[in-house]
Every structure is written in C-alpha cells, then in structure tokens.
Amino acid sequence: MLSEAVDARNELTVDILYGDHEGGQRAVTRFVLSPRPDGAGWLAGAARHWNVDRADPR
Q1: Which is it for the CA torsion 11, 17, 18, 19, positive or negative?
Q2: How many domains does the chain have?
Q3: Rounded to 5 degrees, what angle do the CA atoms 2, 6, 12 make?
Q4: 35, burial (CB in 10 Å: exposed 0-12, middle 13-18, buried 19+)
Q5: Which residues span the domain enclosing 36?
Q6: Is-above-0.90 flag for pTM?
Q7: How far is CA 25 from the centre of its chain?
Q8: Three-class SS string for 24-41?
Q9: pLDDT along the chain (58 residues), means of 10
Q10: Distance CA 25, CA 14 (A)
C-alpha cells in the first residue's frame, strides 16, 4: 500500500509516537510528505505535535 502511494506520487501523512529514554513524556509528531511539482523528489514537513500523557502546552 505504501509503495503504491509512492509510485502514484500521492501525498503521505505519517504519525510517529516517541518518548524519552525511560518511556515517559510520550508525544506524537505528524509528518507530511508531498511530491515536488517538478518531480525531483519529495518535500517533508512537521505538521503537528501533541502530548499523549499530559495536556498540550498552549
């Protein structure tokens, strides 16, 4: 499924869960991968961050 999206040059969204070395302070970052209009690769960006175990700092 992922290879089909890459071959079709569709925009991709990936959520990555991570934390500190003790497994605490878990957070998620959403990354967006967009194909370049000129066909010369991809553009990557971090679209959103949020905390899992505590309130978001706003």
Answers
A1: positive
A2: 1
A3: 70
A4: middle
A5: 2-51
A6: no
A7: 18
A8: CCCEEEEEEEEECCCCCC
A9: 89 91 84 94 91 70
A10: 20
